[in-house]
Amino acid sequence: MRKQIVNVKHFLKVAAKKIPGFITSRAYHLVYGITSLMPMKKNMIVFESRGDMCDNAYALFDYMWNNGYREKYEYIWLVEDKERAKAKKLKNVKFASNKNRSFKPKTYYYLARAKYYIYDHDNFIGKLKRKKDHVSFYLWHSINLKAPARGA
User: How buried is 134 (Cβ within 10 angstroms: 0-12 exposed, 13-18 middle, 19+ buried)?
Assistant: First the structure.
């Protein structure tokens, strides 16, 4: 009987750690689902790269920023360090968290509303149901010898 009590205590201890994360994840998916019902913003672009604003996604952003597309689009960057990104003081650029590869409600909001998602490493939107007109761009480094992440 004592062993069963110990097992139940262990189960409850493990569950107490995992359940909040599960509930949070489901809540964020709910935010995504609700905001998906809102109209898509055709001038919104979400960028993501590992290392915060670098790599191929940043090269494309930099080109657009410096070649007449600055005011045409609303730019969203998914970054780990929002304060460092905000220090760049880029007008018409918003930042959402992807710290520890987990998104916040604001991140799901932008992913649901944006017409374009541009990434160069992981495709976090791949598991989410996207609208028919949503466009994702996977910017790899060279010849693509393997399939891009699911949902690309």
Answer: middle
DSSP-assigned letters across all residues of 88-118: T--TTEEEEE-GGG---HHHHHHHHHEEEEE
pLDDT at 69: 92
This prediction's pTM: 0.73
Residues 6+ apart with CB under 8 A from 128: 29, 32, 111, 112, 151
The rounded distance, in Å, linking the Cα atoms of 83 and 88 is 9
For Cα atoms 61, 65, 70, give the angle at the middle one, nearest 5 degrees.
125
Output the pLDDT for position 14: 58
Q: Per-residue pLDDT averaged across 89-108, rounded? A: 81
- Give pLDDT tens digits for 34-64: 878 888 999 999 998 887 888 888 999 999 9
The helix (run of H) or strand (run of E) holding residue 58 is: helix 55-66
CA nearest to 103, candidates 37, 42, 43, 31: 31
SS3 state of residue 130: coil
Give dist(CA 77, CA 93) in Å, integer. Answer: 7
